[in-house]
Amino acid sequence: MIARQYQHKSKRGSTGLLRTRFQFAILLCFIWTGIILLKLFYVQVIQHDYYVTRANKQRNGVVALLPERGPILDRKNRPLAISVPMTSIYGVPEAMKDLDSELKAISKIVPIEIKEPLNVVKNRPFVWIARKVSQQLADKVRQANLSGVYFTQESRRFYPNKELASHVVGFVGIDNKGLSGVEYQYENIVCGIPGKLPVLRDAKKRLLYSTGSTPATTGRTVQLTIDAGIQHIAEEELHEAVEEQDAESGAVIIMNPYTGEILALANEPTFNPNIYKQYANTRWKNRAIQDYYEPGSTFKPVVAAAALDKQLVDPDDLFDCQHGSISVNGHIIKDHKPFGTLTFRQIIQKSSNVGTIKVGMIVGPQSLFDYATAFGFGKRTGIDLPGEAPGVFRPPSRWSAISIGAVSIGQEIGVTPIQVLRMMSAIGNGGYLPTPHTVARISDSSGKLQQTVFPQPQSLPIRHEAIETLQTFVEAVVDEGGSGTLAEIPGYSVAGKTGTAQVIGPSGTYADGGYIASFVGYVPAQKPAFAMIALIRGPKKEHYGGRVAAPLFRKIGQQVLKYLDIPPDQVQNPAIQVASAFPRVKQTSIISEDIEPVNYTPPEQHHKLENGNDDYKASGLVMPSFYGKTAGEIVQLLSKANRPFRLLGTGTVIKQWPFPGTLLTEDDLCIITLGTSSQNVTRTNRNVNRK
Predict the structure, then answer these.
(1) Are residues 565 and 586 in the same domain?
(2) Are the C-beta atoms of 496 and 521 separated by less than 8 Å?
(3) Range of 662's domain?
(4) Contact call for residues 371 and 358 (beta carbons, < 8 A)
């Protein structure tokens, strides 16, 4: 009986436990179901927008359509840099059946760019295999029919003239980004605007179809002031001169002295931008604007300008040059040859250090510094190329006891070739400091002109009479048996200045046997068609500027004058018949016969709009020189020519804007400043014979 009762209770207890467990399981199911429902509600309702956005990002994508870079042309529309279509090969590692064997197969056809280990490459969704290969090589890879290997079209920058103007044009990297020269400076203009291609992808990111696209916009066209013909002449002659002298390097810059347009800029050694990686990066450096040096005697015109402008010295004042030696606070400075008594004009003509130092002492440290900075030394010229150096020019407060002597002959100052050329250009054009530039105009892909580049020059605070006298000084350097006679060009008047500077070594002192020979000048002297600086670093056979750089100036100058069809000025009739105050520009000539020449393209040859009309409103009028004319004469001439003008001051013309030789547009305002030749000038310390 007791056993039966126990069994009954045991069955009833186990049944209750099972029921309790079942009820608990059902409760858990309800709780779990509730949690799932809550989660679904949270995901599908509360976070609906978030997950829709994520889904769209996964299946919708945008493929960037790289634009084609705009061409770079010379001033006569000859191509210097163009873009050519190329094929690039890329791979999707997860879609490649055998990554190692496929890459080896491709490497037998074209060099591959993958340098990382294969285990790293396998984890990437995309990898470039070969960039910008020829169509023939790409077709060979296609014929291999490899899995996971795809092709796309890209453009490659090509420089058809190879080394020509490489330091001006520059080059681009593998991703078509400008790395130097105009390519870098005008990157935002040349590069174009990328296009967009919306695409739909599957779970494996395979392209299913596209949904329309925004095409890429081709970069704008940049036309340079560089003339490929003049550039070729400069590069060939510079290369020959450097080889002849077994020199380290050299530079030549040719510029329009009125507008600042760079007609040629050459460096030696040079490089081919198509294969720039095969050259040492030192060859990429644009030494003509980046390397500074002591100018030596090419700085002496600045001393002369200060003395003449302040009327401290007359051209015929005599100086005892002490047979080629002078002591400046115990430091002996010598001439390249002994001189006795020389006039101020002869001091510059023969490049006497002793005489120039004496003139510099009369000018004084502060005035010398002020005039040098007015000529642009110690600061960048503003040329539109990257990396320009400002040079080095300490203020007088940091000069030593011998600095006045050293600075007067172009020592203790660091300059760039472009700064020296700018200084000489200001002398040749009558007192206006031009802004050097390499870009003339910018147009879109259809040829429509968008921008004309014409930086405004600065007027030098120097009397016109002083500039005119200084012009005769630098002309005598070449034409009257001065230090630059080897720069003489038969039939043409040449003005310029020689320079011979020692190289400063790593220790801060002059290195033995190291020289920089230079010559800077303009031609023809009366109406310059161009200004040029020729510089040779480390010549081995000769080291004087008059013997090394002056002949290079002559060789280049002769060819450029013939190329530009500039008539000889020393055989022409000096009596010039002027038809009117504003002569029309002749379409067949690049210079005007009665004003300073300007190398402008005639308006008819400028870019055209699609409707065929001129898009550059040029009047065809050239600004003549009004210096020395009275207010009445100015009013009569300008009124007759129907030109807007403004007169400032009284007396005769001492300054004018635009400067002589400028091609005027229809709306240009002529600003004429009147005064007296001795206005605001005090003459002191004048002696007929200076010891």
Answers:
(1) no
(2) yes
(3) 582-691
(4) no
